[in-house]
């Protein structure tokens, strides 16, 4: 197996049956896997030789718990780089009344801590 890029949340509910997924699956060196991303751990990431990740997380009330666990697994697995999709910049903050804005703020604050220094990341937000 060669190093791989993990894309999380790109297809939503349709998964690999979506026309876009089927088109991608025909490309050389592309494999479409369906997996509950909230169950991904460091061992699975290492077994798949994941070096880069793109995540478009859900925005449910338990987002912080599940997404932060993924980021810890990325760090433990030695993933080199990831990009996460956030929300509108004006929603991101610790006192925003919109819960998912606070969740995105909490995730980005977590990732800014020295313990996550080995993990390179970027945020895509509007």
From TrEMBL:
InterPro entries: NAD(P)-bd_dom_sf. This is NmrA-like domain-containing protein.
């Amino acid at each position: 197996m060669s190093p791989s890029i993990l894309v999380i949340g790109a297809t939503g509910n349709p998964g690999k049956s979506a026309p876009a997924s089927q088109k991608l699956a025909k490309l050389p060196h592309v494999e479409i896997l369906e997996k509950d991303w909230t169950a991904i751990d460091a061992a699975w990431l290492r077994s798949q030789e994941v070096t880069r990740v793109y995540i478009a997380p859900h925005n449910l009330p338990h987002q912080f718990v599940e997404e932060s666990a993924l980021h810890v697994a990325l760090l433990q697995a030695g993933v080199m780089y990831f990009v996460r999709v956030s929300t509108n910049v004006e929603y991101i903050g610790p006192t925003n009344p919109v819960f998912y804005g606070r969740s995105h703020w909490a995730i980005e604050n977590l990732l800014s801590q020295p313990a996550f220094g080995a993990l390179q990341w970027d945020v895509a937000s509007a």
